[in-house]
Amino acid sequence: MDSSEHHGGPPFHGIVYGNIVHSVCLAGMVVAIIGTMLCVVGVSCFAENELVLRALWSGKTSAEIWTVATGQPVLGHWYLGKLGTSDGIAMLGMAICCTAAVFGIWGACLAMLIGRRKERKLFLILTVIVGTILILSLLGVVSG
Amino acid sequence: MFPFNLVISKLRLRGGVAGLKAGLMVLLVCVGVAFAADADGMAVDNPGEINAVVFFVSFFLLSTAIATFAVVAGVGGGVIFTPLLLGFTEIDSYIIRATGLFVALVGALVAARPFLKRGIANMRLILWSATPYAVFCVVGAVLAVHVKETCGLRGEAILRGVLGLIVISIGFLFLAGGRKMAYPEVTNVSDFTRSLGLGMTYWEDSLVKTVHYEVKRAGAALVLFGVAGLISGFFGMGAGWAMVPIFNLFMLAPLKVAAVCARLLMGVGGTAAMWSYLRNGGLVPLFVVPCMLGAVVGSLVGTRIMLKIKAGVVRHLVVVVMFFAGLRLLIKAASMWQGC
After folding, report:
1. Which of A61, A79, A107, A134 has its CA 20 to 30 A from that of B324?
2. Does A38 touch chain B (CB under 8 A)?
3. In whole angstroms, what is the distance from residue B197 CA to residue A5 CA?
4. How do residues B66-105 score in pLDDT, each as one tens digit?
5. Which of B17-31, B129-143, B218-232 has the lowest mean pLDDT?
6. What number is the ipTM of this complex?
7. For testing the chain B interface, which of A7, A12, A62, A109 should be mutated: the one with the most B CBs within 10 Å?
């Protein structure tokens, strides 16, 4: 039984994970809200609002919606090439939210390595496995 | 900008019940409008002029109402959001599931910090369960893409039908109260589970003392987390309804620890699945952001209201909504199947 099992204080890597995901997710939400607000009032939209909403409300698929509204289907990290548009900024914000756990898990992994209270190797390995799944998912290697 | 502080202070002044009634009205009106539009065939054939501001505000209010009820009833918002929208709007199921998952994910990520800081969340338990949960969340999301691209209307019908059955089953689970144990007594822990060292100690405010706990069946629980991840990734719902019982009733973790771990686990597994939806164009900012914002505001309002009212009444109301949404999904699935 190691020293971290029966103490009252939270583990350092847990605090690091919590701080990172909270901050990154909030930052992403702010960016997404700003982008969407600009989009709603019609500032530099990549896709035309009226067409997007009409297609969305009438049950069109995601590919059809984007094709109708932008003339092309959007796949992968399309927003990275459209950061000058309000929809691109909104999508970037949502993507930032989705990266929160990726940064959080790798931050926790680093904290396990440098923290004063050493975590068991098993949990370090599990953190690396989960972090790798998230990275592969982000890159589209395992996420279809 | 929407006057959130004003709304919250009004709710505080007039009491939680008034706020709850207002929320119920908004929810019922939105559902009624969607139902009526669908019944007329208007939503499919002639959506007419749709103003972005009106759309934004409508979905913000709907999402706020759903989140408020979910928090007061002690259930996850995703378990109401996804079935309601799938049952009562014509919006593509892939987009609704992507949005539902994103909203649940953001809620889980934002909530992580205080629980981890206070030591209630057990990182070891989360990491242990996150591996199968994240893997099968991704598998579920990939299956969702596959169904979208290959199964057509028949696939949509099956999806909505299965989701309808799941939602009705969850409703029965809530209705039965779901046996819960605040501090389960853990005996006969296997050598394997004990060797993992998943037990922890945390400070329990309500008891004014530290609580030490052990857990059981760590190996078998991996299978259950895999199943929960598959459902969560495929249907775009938070899987708190499944994960809390797994932690609490199967692994015998204290109820509070189970609830917190389930929420944080959603943040990890949901992220793995979310990238599939994001990369395949399933997130539409004009739809996702008002729902996300509504979920955050609804959680704040719900937390304040829940201190002032009897949650049991709301819980039963939510169960009724779930049965209604589940039945509607089954009816819709049947009509889609006949149309194939």
Report:
1. A61
2. no
3. 7
4. 888 877 776 767 778 888 888 888 888 889 989 988 988 8
5. B17-31
6. 0.90
7. A62
